[in-house]
Design brief:
single chain; alpha+beta; five-stranded antiparallel beta sheet; about 15% strand
Length: about 220
Amino acid sequence: MRASLLSLFAACVFIGSTGVASAQAIPGPGPQQLIEKVSQDMLRDIDANRAALRQDPAKLRALVDKNLLPNFDADYAARLVLGKHWRTATPEQQHRFVEAFIQSMMRQYGTALLDFTGDRLTILPFKGDPAATTATVRTEVKRDNGTPVPVNYTMRGTPQGWKAWDVTIEGVSYVKNFRTDFGSEIDAKGLDAVIQRLETENTSSAKPPAAKASAKAG
C-alpha cells in the first residue's frame, strides 16, 4: 500500500507537534488554509524547477525542507511509529531513528512529488468545529486513470500552529501502517539494524544519478 499510493498524497505531507495548544492560542492559518497554502507553494516551486529537481536530489530535498519540514514533527511521528519500541530505545537510538525516519519520509515524498500536478488534488469543504483543537482536512487525489482517492489529514493545534499527525488513505492510516512494518522488522532484526538500513538508504539516495552510476561501475 505504501509504495503504490505514496504519490497520491505527497503534495501535503505533515505530521504533528508534541504540544497541544488551546483553540484560542493556535497561531497561524487554520488547518484547511495550511493544507492549501503548503500544497500551492510546493507545487509552484516544483513546476518552476521540475527538470533540475529530477537531476539533483540535494535541490529536491532543500525544496522539501523549505515547504514541508517546518510542518513535520519528527519526534511525535517517530514515537507513534515505534510504539512500544520507543519506550525501550535508548536516547541515542531515539535520536538516530528520528533523524533517519524523517529523512526517509521526506526523500520518498519529494520523489513522488516530481510526478504530481496540482490538477490532481482537490481539497474538500471543511467539516468540523472551528473552536476545536483537532480537525480532519479531507482531500481527494486522482490516480493516473482519473479515479478519485480519499486522502484525509488528521490535524491538531500546537503552540507552533496547526499540524497533522496522520494521513489516512482509503481508510488506511499511514501511522499505523508504518508502525506495523517497522515493528515487525524491529522484532526480527532489532532497532539498530532498522536504523542502519534507513541511514544507508538515505545516504545512497542523496547522491546525484551520475554519482550512483559511477559507484555501481566501480
